[in-house]
Amino acid sequence: MAILEEEESVTMDQGGIELDPVSNVPIKRLIDAPIPVGGVDNWLKTGRDLKFELNPVDNSGIAYISSNPNVDKSKKCFPEESKLYPFQLTDSMNDNSDEFFNFLKNCFKNFEELIKNKDYHNFLGQNKEVQFGVIIEEDIETKNARLEERQLILNGIMSRLSSDLDNLINQKSLKIEEQQDSEASHNLAQLVDIMHITNLIHAIYFSKPSEKIGLLTIWINKIEIEPSVEVLKEIMSFEKPYKNPLLWNYYIKKLVSRGLFQQAINTLKESKFEELEQNENDLFLVIEDLISILNSYQTQFGTENFEFIEWKQKCCEFRDNFVNVKVKETENLVIKDNIHELLVIMTGLQSAIIKNSTSWYECFVTKYLFELPSETLISQYLYTSLENFPINETVSDTWSQCCLDLIKGNYLNLIRKIENLDKSIVAYLSILLEAKGLYGDYDFILSMQEEFDNLGLNEAKESQTISELLLNDHALECLCHRDLTPVGIGILMCLNSAKSRLIISQYLPHYECKTNDDLEWCMSICAKLSLGSTASSVLKVNASKLFTQGNLFESLVLFAKSGDLKVLKDKCWLILENSLVKNASVKDDLINSLILSDKKFQDIDFPANLRQCLAPYALFLLFLQKKNKKIIKRENQDYYNKSLVSQEDFIKIIELIENFEDNFVDLIKQFKKKNPVNLTQKEKNLIIQFDDCQSLYEFAVCDETLSKISNSEKDWRLILLETLNDQHKKFPETLEELILLYRKCINRELSYAFLQQK
Amino acid sequence: MMKEPIKPFATGHEELIHNVAYDFYGKQLATCSSDQHIKVFDLDPLTSTWVLNDSWKAHDSSVVKVVFASPEFGHILASISFDRTIKIWEEDFDEQNGSGRRWKKMATISDSYGPLYDISFAPSHLGLRIGTIGNDGILRVYDAIEPSDIRHWTLTNEINVLSSPPAPQLQSDFSLSWCPSRFSSEKLVVCALDQGFIYQKNKNDKFVLATQLPEHNGLIRSVSWAPSMGRYYQLIATGCKDGLVRIFKLTETIGNKSVPNDDQMDTSRDEDIEGTGSALNARNDHNNNNNNIGSGADNSLNHIHVELLSSHDDHKGEVWKVKWNLTGSILSSAGDDAKIRLWKATYSNKFQCMSVISAQQK
């Protein structure tokens, strides 16, 4: 298949981010990427292919150049081709920065109470409380008060989310200024889009009526800074700024229509219009009155609309009286005319508002500010604004389309679009929408009951809402980032569903416990959710890790706690086997000192089943300590009297160990390395004896000798062959191997005897 | 701070690498190559660099795959090679790093009649178990009956996925992946040439064919079974020579329903694929094989319904590798466009490519 030549087809988005021509998503590149620009076709002709492996604990991976093992191996492999190229998966998280992670942690804290037991579902719904009997007025009042209280809770959560998002954007903007990172800029642009949407949701659905004007003003002025600082500079560059027509025909109107009353008042005061008092007193007084009426506009309008109506009446009177204003100098006519136009806007005349606006959102906010700031008229204002400033859905910004969906009530579309911007924040926004009851009839998008029935998972019977799906998804993403794992687990625990229990039970064994606290944390989760087998898995995984690290006692304690007695026995016997073979105690001071000093058992967690399994090793350790079989026999009568092994067998073991406790074979090897002149006669004799033994053994197991043995004979070699577990049933090649084998066999017998006794 | 990825590093392999494996905690990395060596690297947590743990000649032919076992069973590595053997290695912490003796060979299994292509440890809740598939078209499952004794492995299941091995002159590929869910019956997917077979265990502890993955039009290069993480259904992804990344949704119905037999499965395609082996030509007659469906119905088995959720041709060429992340929420794929593509489902369960990593310089 033809491969697209990338250098021709890569496209850039507005932020300078490279986009993949096929999927239209951002492209990242491997650091020191192995394939030269435009070299993919040639690279493919060499039979190479790209492969990767993902890290099982996070969203990182390793890419590498590979090929089918069948291909011609005569092609040279260049050093770059046997390199490994680590990479980070850009997952649904917008970025992996600390700032973003902190933001998500704050989000979880903010929403924790709402998520608990899926409280967000129908949080303000009417059917939350079922009432019986006659409904009395008091009940209704109580219910309304409770609803109001709940609405305030939601408003508070939304407000904190909005503020956290704002902080995040500020932090990231500062960082981007320092680092000039185009990818980070792209992420920031997406966050800014979400902020615009969030601000509008905040203003419309999660604010008191008295807060709406202020929030809408924040919303529109975060979308774009209008009028620009450059315009102000130009106006102020005049010696007498009030004489600059731009102040009147553009600047003040823009500020007022966007709710920036204080800025408008300040600009007017700075414009040196006071000098009009001398020659144009009427105009001076008009400007004074304008400042006064602007000052009297309260952003809290909306609680009681009659206050606004009062203000509007004053405004209308002002506008109506304006016809009497006389202007002496013609150059000041522009001031008078524009103030009049401004007053017409302020009195809420639709045509004037539309004429003055440059966008649908500006028209929308101006209408809300000056026609009547009422929640119920929002959609009407929107439709009028859109009629005059239609949105082209194919080219307009995502935030703009989302805002439109929000006002139109297309919440599913809205969520889908926000999901494309960021898959974490969308979960929290969706919770708020659901809590508010905006999803209405389509909140249960997935009824899983039937599927769970089919599976026989009765406890998993439940339905899922959009929010729960998104939240689950977000939790899963969090689990891929160690820093966010507590958030992921926290969300799942709050949801407290069968599904979230399943996820936690599957995830926890993969969580790396770096400290005891980590392990305690995992155990506490298992305990809270009654995940017995998961706890056992976690303990076993960590026990195995400690075992390979040589922390034997801690490891055995965890194995004991896991309840898997079989594994515990295996590990204890492995310890004994190693000790027997090496003829030395294991390299774990803790375990040895605990065994040798029984008093410490009281102060330390030493499970009874572990003590039992370690008994054989304890016996051996005591033996090693005493170094005297007579003492051993006497002092430890109890050990073998408890029918662990017969006394006869036990003595055999001791003798075997005694005979080789100085590591006889190693000793012989050392003697052989020495100059024979330096050897004592005893050492020379030992070498001769050993070599004789070696020769004797080799003779005993050579084919010629073996062929002479009758099968009916109870020859030690035949017994040995039967005992050998090795697939090939081959005799050990050397005497040393034979000794080792015997030790292992004895150990196996011991183990077997012990297990039988159990 | 953005977490900076570790810079590329040389492995020192003299031939191309065929596989890379992370250990359970992502702290150790094993690589294998045509140079017959396995190398293991440790992640130095202080410098975030990979440091050579050991390198050794592991096989007598190309080593095509290495995999780590769950740490529950110790520090165990398994490797397969075109020399037809499986080898089990265990790290010996008493040996020095770089000594060539750090990883001790604990077992060699040589049952395969052809080069081995894939090996995978079963999820740890199933015990210490491995599945392998090779050019002889036989799926073999081995168990360490005593997990503490990894010197002895027992062949517990042997299934002729193909009735006869593919012709040597034709390209072939084989892969397998276990169902990681502990809440579902034991299953694995085996891909042989251009067919995907899903096997599940019956009451006699034998794997039997449950169903097939439809619609592949070329050799299946890679298969990955997603961690289910609370989903009521399973997801399997395949990467195919026909240029498609496919995502299948499997829904299971418990007992009392007969497992579809061969007649019910997709056998409508009969075209061969030029220049490649086709499992349709080589496929086993399952009804004649005691290990497989046999009489066609087994009431102890779950009925599995397979549905192609989505397919994507964004790689515009052969797809070599697919892999799900830890939570089964992101699928990654690599293909002939020298790109790794990341796929994620929206809440409406539609998979979309959400980002791309290119191996080509800017």
Automatic annotation (TrEMBL), chain A:
GO BP terms: namely: mRNA export from nucleus; positive regulation of DNA-templated transcription; protein import into nucleus
Pfam families per record: Nucleopor_Nup85 (PF07575)
> What do the Gene Ontology cellular component annotations say?
nuclear membrane; nuclear pore outer ring
- Tell me the keywords, alphabetical order: Membrane, mRNA transport, Nuclear pore complex, Nucleus, Protein transport, Translocation, Transport
Q: Which InterPro entries match?
A: Nucleoporin_Nup85 (IPR011502)
| A GO term for molecular function | structural constituent of nuclear pore
User: Where is the protein localized?
Assistant: Nucleus, Nuclear pore complex
Is Membrane given among the entry's keywords? yes
What PANTHER family does the entry give? FROUNT PROTEIN-RELATED, NUCLEAR PORE COMPLEX PROTEIN NUP85
UniProt record similarity statement: Belongs to the nucleoporin Nup85 family.
Q: What is the purpose of this protein?
A: Functions as a component of the nuclear pore complex (NPC).
**How would you summarize the oligomeric state and partners of this protein?**
Component of the nuclear pore complex (NPC).
The protein's name in its UniProt record: Nuclear pore complex protein Nup85
Automatic annotation (TrEMBL), chain B:
Q: Where are the WD repeats?
A: 10-44, 56-90, 312-344
GO biological process assignments: cellular response to amino acid starvation; mRNA transport; positive regulation of TORC1 signaling; protein transport
- KW Protein biosynthesis (keyword) present: no
| Keyword set, alphabetical order | mRNA transport, Nuclear pore complex, Nucleus, Protein transport, Repeat, Translocation, Transport, WD repeat
- InterPro entries hit by this protein: Sec13/Seh1_fam, WD40/YVTN_repeat-like_dom_sf, WD40_repeat_dom_sf, WD40_rpt
Extract the SMART domains matched here: WD40
The record ties this protein, via PANTHER family, to: NUCLEAR PORE COMPLEX PROTEIN SEC13 / SEH1 FAMILY MEMBER, NUCLEOPORIN SEH1
Composition-biased stretches, type Acidic residues, lie in 263-274
List the SUPFAM superfamilies hit by this protein, alphabetically: WD40 repeat-like
Compartmental location:
Endomembrane system; Nucleus, Nuclear pore complex
Which GO molecular function entries does the Swiss-Prot or TrEMBL record give? structural molecule activity
List the Gene3D superfamilies: YVTN repeat-like/Quinoprotein amine dehydrogenase
Report the protein name in the record: Anaphase-promoting complex subunit 4 WD40 domain-containing protein
The record gives the membrane topology as: Peripheral membrane protein
Give start-end of the signal peptide.
none
- Does the keyword section mention ATP-binding? no
Q: Name one GO cellular component term.
A: Seh1-associated complex
Principal cellular location given in the protein's record: membrane
The record's similarity note reads: Belongs to the WD repeat SEC13 family.
Segments for region (Disordered): 259-294
The record lists the lineage as:
Eukaryota, Fungi, Dikarya, Ascomycota, Saccharomycotina
